[in-house]
Amino acid sequence: MTLVIALSCKNGIVITSDGQTTVGSSGGPVRVESQKIFKINENTLFGASGSVGTIQKSLQIVSEIKDLESDWTPSLMNNVRNKLFPVYRSEVERHVVFHRTINPNQIPPPPIADIILCKVQEDGHNMIWHIAPDCSDELLHELGYGCTGNGSIFAHTLLKGFDIKNMTTEEGKLLAYNTIKLAIETGAYGLGEPIDIWTITKDQEKVEVHRLSKEEMMALKDTWVSWKEIEKELFKKIALKELEK
User: Fold this and answer.
1) What residues contact 221, with CB distance under 8 A and at least 6 apart?
2) For 182-219, what is the HEC assignment?
3) Residue 110 — φ and ψ, nearest 5°?
4) CA of 233: how far to CAs of 12, 78, 114, in Å?
């Protein structure tokens, strides 16, 4: 299970993920720590869920498209999809041919990559671009967030009700941490730490991509613990007030 979330805040984008991947071995699946968010260029971040090998191929293809550093246009986005689709089709075809020789009546799901690309345009406009395994795509920044992975249901549940587009990236980092942390604590299988958080912000002069350090993550965790304690106390006060009516 994987969870990658991108939040479109009023002064930039926050993108976060859990840090666990399941990989195959001769003895069966094993859990390993893995990075799921990558810097493509000076203003673009890549996150993905799916098969490790297919994600690696996708990352290589996207990293080689230099025009992604410029503002995204429909023709550029179409070019990205056209470069990814043959790789995805080849992976599926190879998978089907192989498994048909073993058990044609029970072919497991093929290796896929489900991608989230994030960028802040020159005019400061946020872009959250989701590219599905069949290369259909959608822009999600107007929704306020995008997510990918088997753990997406947790994100949709935990983010509901928050006015993300009017949050600062500082507030967004705390919300992102809360979402991934609670998903890890709730998910029965596959989600795990370390939590990874990046931001893309733009001031008057330049766009900055920043990955939170261990020290910043520790400080964020302390703030989150304080939030949860305040939340518990507030709940008690509201509940007691209701009982007194």
Assistant:
1) 177
2) HHHHHCCCCCCCCCEEEEEEECCCCEEEEECCHHHHHH
3) -75, 165
4) 32, 51, 40
User: Model confidence over 231-241: pLDDT tens digits?
Assistant: 999 998 888 77
Q: How far apart are CA 32 and CA 19, in angstroms?
A: 8
DSSP 160: T
Query: Full-prediction pTM beyond 0.85?
Result: yes
Whether the Cβ atoms of residue 131 and residue 115 lie closer than 8 Å to each other:
yes
Residue 101, SS3 per DSSP:
coil
Buried b (16+ CB within 10 A) or exposed e, 108-123: eebbbbbbbbbbbeee
Name the token pair of 209: 């991509």
The sheet with strand 4-9 has its strands ordered as 145-148, 4-9, 12-17, 196-202, 207-211
Task: Yes or no: say if 51 and 111 are a contact pair by the CB < 8 Å rule.
Answer: yes
Determine the Cα–Cα distance for residues 91 and 18; give it in Å rounded to an integer.
25
